[in-house]
Each structure stands twice: as C-alpha cells, then as structure tokens.
Amino acid sequence: MGLTYKQVFENNRRWVAEKSVSDSDFLAKLSGEQQPDYLYIGCSDSRVPAEIFMGAQPGEVFVHRNVANQVDPSDRNVMSVIQFAVTQLQVEHIVVCGHYLCGGIKAAMEKGIDGPLDSWFQQIRGIAGKHRDELEGIDDLDGRYRRLVELNVEVQCTNVLGLQVVQEAIGKNGSPTIHGWVYEMHTGRLIDLDFQY
Ligand SMILES: [Zn+2]
C-alpha cells in the first residue's frame, strides 16, 4: 500500500525490463490486433483487480469498470464498450462481476448521496425495492448487502442479455455467453453464480 507517483514509473521500467528478458516478443506481439475472448464488466473498486484474480495476461480480457458494475442501457459508455466487444472483437464471453463488501451497493442504500452518484444508484435502489421482502428477511446487514450484490449482478446480466446487439450476435454466432460472478474479497475466491442463459 502507499504506491508513490515516482514508484509507478520505476515499476513500469522494471516491468518492461523483466518482460524483455522472459519473453522478448511479448510487447511486439501485443502491438498486433487484440483478440480477447472475454468482456469483463466489473466494479471500479481498487481491491478487485480482474486480470490478476483471473490469471489473465494482457490481450486476454476487454475491461469495463464502473461503480457497482452497472449495465444501464442509457449509459453510452458501457453500451459502446459492449457494442465494440460484440461486433468488433466478437468475444465469446461477457462477464458481469460484482463483489461482496461493495461500497457502491452500500452507498446506494444510504441517505445523503447527491450529484451524479444519486442517479447512478437509481437502478440499485430499484432492485432493492423489488426484493424488499427477501432482503428484509435477512437479519444481519452484511448478509443483506451480500444478497443485494448477487441480485444486482443478476439484473445486470439480464440487461446485457436483452441488448439487441447481443441478441443478434447470439442468433448469428451462438455467442457470447453471459456470466454472473461475485468476487469474495477476503478469500480472493471467484464465485460463478451459474445463471443459465
Ligand atoms: Zn464495488
């Protein structure tokens, strides 16, 4: 923890030097076209490093991250990422990955949020409202948030699946397959929610 600004560039020089020794063609190969099999949509949280916990190398995962891994059809950013991944890169898999202890999910349920985050959280509040009975039936607050994290992933997967560009690709190529994951930070474990789409 406590990475200084200067260290970033020192680390980068060391990384280039190491890669040049371990795989001399590494950077040259990456300069060609990218052909990732995965589009990963996850939370911006700094403790959820997708490529690291997936064991993925540069070039293998196309990544989009935002607060609480939202897929909102009115968000041009995520819609453009999905369009690019599906039509240009023709990814095999689209993953929506949430994580337990998500600060975004928690903040969405708290009062006093204003600015752009307030509208950003509308979808999460809607999910919580729709599942109020189930969530209120969970006694501890942590458990309630854990369940909301899962429900949120499920809704975002459904949002991905409902997009015309995704439906057209599935009809034509039989892919991408949509997956919902949750990353458990304190164990480092990746959980497949196993939705059958
Ligand atoms: Zn989060």
- Beta-strand content bin: 15-25%
CATH homologous superfamily title of the largest domain: Carbonic anhydrase
* CATH architecture tag of the largest domain: 3-Layer(aba) Sandwich
Characterize the overall form: globular
Largest sheet: 5 strands, mixed
**Bound compounds:** zinc ion
Per DSSP, the total helix count is 10
Classify the fold: give the CATH topology of the largest domain.
Beta-carbonic Anhydrase, Chain A
**Mean pLDDT across every amino acid position:** 95
Which stretches are poorly predicted, pLDDT < 50 over at least 5 residues? Answer: none
Distance between the termini: 39 Å
Note the main attributes of this structure.
single chain, 197 residues, alpha/beta, Beta-carbonic Anhydrase, Chain A, five-stranded mixed beta sheet, 10 helices, binds zinc ion
Describe this structure in words.
With 197 residues, the protein is α/β, with parallel strands linked by helices. The chain has 2 domains: 1-32, no CATH class; 33-196, Beta-carbonic Anhydrase, Chain A (3-Layer(aba) Sandwich). It has helices spanning 5-22, 26-30, 50-54, 76-88, 103-108, 116-120, 122-130, 132-136, 141-161, 164-173, and strands spanning 38-43, 61-66, 93-99, 177-184, 189-192. The protein has a 5-stranded mixed beta sheet with strand order 2-1-3-4-5. A hairpin with a 4-residue loop joins strand 4 and strand 5. The protein is globular and about 60 Å long. The protein starts with a helix and ends in a 5-residue tail after the last strand. The structure holds zinc ion. Zinc ion (ZN) is lined by residues 43, 45, 68, 99, 102-104.
